[in-house]
Amino acid sequence: MRRTALVSLTLGFALFVALLIWQGAGSVMSTLAVAGWGLLPIAAFHLVPLVLDAAAIQVLVAKSCSLRRATLTRWVGESVNSLLPAGQIGGPIAMVRQMKQRGMAGREAAAAITVSTTLQAVAQIVFALLGLAVFGISAAHRPNDSLWLPMLLATALISALLYAFYVAQRRGLFGWAFRTLSKLSSKRDWSSLLDRADAVDEIVQRMYGQRRPVLASFALSLVGWIVGTVEVWLILQCIGHPVSWVDALLLESLGQAIRGAAFFVPGSLGVQEGGYLLLAPLVGLPADAGLALSLAKRTRELLLGVPGLVHLHFSERGWRRQRASQDSAPLSAATDSAPL
Predict the structure, then answer these.
(1) What whole-number distance in Å separates Cα of residue 317 and Cα of residue 51?
(2) Is the pLDDT higher at 11 or at 51?
(3) How many beta carbons lie within 10 A of that of residue 115, not counting itself?
(4) SS3 call for 318
(5) What is the number of other CB atoms lying within 10 angstroms of the CB of residue 299?
(6) What whole-number distance in Å separates Cα of residue 87 and Cα of residue 98?
(7) Which spans are transmembrane here (predicted)?
(8) Phi, psi of 85 (to 5 degrees)
(9) What is the dihedral of CA 312, 318, 320, 323, to 10 degrees?
């Protein structure tokens, strides 16, 4: 896994550098520099979709997690996905750990993150289809409509994979995974882990059976994707290349679809830049503006992600110290009560 992530990161970084050199790094950076300090309020605005995504998690486990805790959890997950070489798997794992550290049962946390991540992916597909619809309606007025068929095929493929993932969840994904591992490594006792995996599958089934929370989670995720359009509109305003709301919607929906398709590349490095480079001409933007848009998003990821990773580091340290003190407490009590 680590080797695959390293290879993906290396290829993505190479693509990132190649695109900058191809388009002229100086031209791209000068375009980005026009935004200046305007990138700070844009980064702050991202807290709005962040809270919406957190609410999409919290609504599934309303009795076990507050919105504040869900927001911190979502913040950490996004930071890991954006800045660490763990693909899109590291974020959900970090979110499960964060929820567990804040008092939620591990099996419930795993189920909630699994279901909410699936629903967010479904919402992203709907958002991408919305962008494709906008693109299709306006294709007659665009200088280039060659991306229509590839984007539609990519969306269909991602939808098929997501449906397969959903079916696997409904049929006991975690239990099946651990039973497969137990067959591959028979020397280890997997019984306790199998019981936990079956418990997670049971909670996942229960969550999907609660229609109102599921629909609410999906709706909040979809609104979060749509609100992200404002970020694109603001960035392009700040760098001196304003576009309409429709064009911003097209850029954000299809850009996020391209980024989501490259989930195996850490941070979608290089792929996101290539996506905006392809999409920029569709809304009349020069190539350097498309790359500057992507770099502005990277800047926001750094401004919010680095503090998120710092928070993750100290929360992990605090949790380990707490567990160490709890483990040592029974030993101390036994020592104190032992006869002299």
Answers:
(1) 25
(2) 51
(3) 26
(4) helix
(5) 17
(6) 18
(7) 40-61, 109-135, 147-168, 214-236, 276-296
(8) -80, 65
(9) -140
Q: What are phi and psi of 90, to 5 degrees?
A: -60, -40
Angle CA(97)–CA(99)–CA(103) in degrees, nearest 5? 110
| Token pair in block for residue 164 | 């397969």
Q: Residue 190 corresponds to which amino acid?
A: W
CA distance 100 to 107: 9
The model's pTM: 0.83
Q: What SS3 class is residue 264?
A: coil
- Give residue for tokens 């770099």: 295
Which of the 8 DSSP states describes residue 145? -
**Cα 59 to Cα 33, 111, 319, distances in angstroms:** 40, 13, 25
Which token pair is 23?
A: 């388009």
Q: How far from 237 is each of 36, 57, 240, 265, 290, CA to CA, in Å?
A: 12, 32, 5, 29, 13
Reference 302, options 7, 32, 11, 15; nearest CA is: 32
Q: Tokens 């100290």 sit at which residue?
A: 314
User: What number of other Cβ atoms are within 10 A of residue 110's Cβ?
Assistant: 26
The DSSP output letter for 102 is T
Q: Return d(Cα 268, Cα 282) in angstroms, integer.
A: 21
- Spell 280-293 as b/e; 16+ CB within 10 A means b: bebbebebbbbbbb
pLDDT tens digits, 136-147: 776 555 555 566
Which among 117, 218, 111, 214 has a CA at the least distance from the CA of 172? 111
Q: Which residue has the tokens 């991202």?
A: 46
Tell me the C-alpha distance between 255 and 86, whole Å: 21
CA pair distance 9, 17, nearest whole angstrom: 12
User: 175: number of CA atoms within 13 Å, CB side?
Assistant: 13
* One-letter amino acid of 181: L
- Looking at every residue in the chain, the average pLDDT score rounds to 81
- What pLDDT score was predicted for residue 340? 42
Block residue for tokens 């199998």: 194
